[in-house]
Design goal:
This protein is of the alpha+beta class. The chain contains 7 helices and 7 strands, in the order ααββββββααβααα. The chain is 34% helix and 19% strand. The strands form 2 sheets. It has a 4-stranded antiparallel sheet. It has a 3-stranded antiparallel sheet with strand order 3-4-7.
Length: 206
């Protein structure tokens, strides 16, 4: 009986710790975000979720307010047809969440400011790459064929194998993967892309 009580107390303690940790990241920014969005439909017709909290390198252990929150806002009844586009050094593929091409936004509490996904990437927002990694299978560096968020010789090899008709991590290139493989952005995946990646890694002009 004592063992059962002890185990129960341990579980309660663990649960309470989990709750306190998650509470740190349960920032309620919904009202503020919706106040800054220009929406075409009533607010209750949109879905809202908070995907990533960034606290910065100098944040203390008990920091309550993040530097920014990456949120996803999209019309609840939209048909999810994927849209692909280049944003800076990245290829992004998400549904065209009305009224924005990509429904991800970055809310900055200290400034009560909202950045679109494009603005966050193009402004080199601190920690933005960590946030982008939370957008599963929808964001990659241009040329990052193995999806590890690094440009390496492996990526050039992936392109060479694709051109030769050999197996690659994404052997059937759909629109999104094709844009990732097309490192020089000339709408054609060929040996020039592999060569350009090798030059880039070596610090040469390409």
């Amino acid at each position: 009986m004592k063992k059962i009580l002890s185990l129960t107390l341990v579980l309660i303690l663990v649960f309470s710790v989990c709750v306190s940790v998650s509470a740190k990241e349960s920032v309620i920014s919904e009202d503020e975000v919706f106040a800054l969005l220009e929406l075409d439909y009533p607010r209750d017709e949109y879905c809202y979720s908070e995907k990533f909290f960034y606290y910065g390198e100098n944040a203390t252990a008990d920091e309550a307010t993040p530097d920014y929150v990456m949120v996803l806002v999209h019309y609840a009844y939209i048909v999810e047809i994927q849209e692909q586009s280049y944003i800076g050094d990245y290829v992004v593929s998400t549904a065209p969440y009305s009224p924005y091409l990509h429904g991800y936004h970055f809310y900055i509490p200290a400034e009560d400011k909202l950045l679109t996904l494009e603005e966050a990437i193009n402004s080199d927002l601190e920690g933005v790459e960590e946030a982008l990694k939370k957008i599963s299978h929808s964001v990659a560096l241009v040329g990052d064929c193995d999806s590890d968020f690094e440009l390496t010789i492996k990526d050039a090899t992936c392109i060479q194998k694709y051109i030769a008709g050999l197996d690659t991590p994404n052997c059937a290139l759909y629109d999104y993967e094709y844009l990732v493989y097309d490192f020089d952005k000339d709408a054609d995946v060929n040996i020039k892309d592999a060569t350009a990646i090798q030059k880039c890694i070596a610090g040469l002009e390409y």
